[in-house]
Design goal:
Layout (H helix, E strand, L loop, with lengths): L6 H19 L3 H17 L13 H10 L3 H14 L4 H13 L3 H11 L12 H10 L4 H9 L5 H13 L4
Helix pairs in contact: 1-2, 1-7, 2-3, 3-4, 3-5, 3-7, 4-5, 5-6
Length: 173
């Protein structure tokens, strides 16, 4: 007994994630970052299990929220921390690439892109939901994103619903 993560811990983690997503949707980026930071701390405190009890590394969303809040240096640090824990995580590599571009470190961003085999215009579905919300607020999906969205390449059912919503904004062919 006591070898597993408690449902209370997982529900607290989910609660902070939900609060962060609500804050992002309301435009309260600093509040969202605070909730994402708490969620990261909670996920770090979870016991190791295979498969993991939480379906994705929450640091991805924290980095995305920091980038959306205009803090690319902090976001870079978060994405790098996630890459230490989850080497070659495509979403974190993609986030790192964008944080470097936001800081005008184009040579470093190009190196990350070329050494991680990331396409130049990686589609939104490799981003966590926090960034999907950020991207939604700035523009609709590109034709390339729509193609990937139709494939449903992310395992999270809620993300698939978000992508269906995003796809519904795009003109039909």
């Amino acid at each position: 007994m006591g070898e597993f993560n408690s449902s209370k811990d997982l529900l607290n983690l989910a609660s902070h994630i939900l609060d962060a997503r609500i804050a992002m949707a309301r435009g309260r980026k600093d509040e969202a970052v605070s909730h994402w930071q708490k969620a990261v701390e909670m996920q770090d405190a979870l016991r190791y299990d295979e498969p993991p009890d939480w379906y994705y590394p929450v640091r991805e969303s924290l980095g995305a929220a920091l980038l959306a809040a205009g803090k690319p240096t902090d976001a870079e640090q978060v994405f790098r921390q996630d890459l230490e824990r989850n080497p070659r995580n495509p979403r974190s590599l993609f986030g790192l690439m964008h944080t470097l571009k936001a800081q005008k470190k184009d040579a470093d961003a190009a190196w990350v892109e070329s050494n991680s085999k990331l396409p130049g215009k990686m589609p939104t579905p490799l981003w966590p939901s926090a960034v999907c919300n950020f991207r939604r607020s700035t523009r609709a999906a590109t034709p390339g994103e729509r193609r990937v969205l139709q494939g449903g390449c992310f395992p999270c059912p809620s993300s698939r619903m978000e992508w269906r919503w995003l796809r519904s904004l795009s003109p039909r062919r």
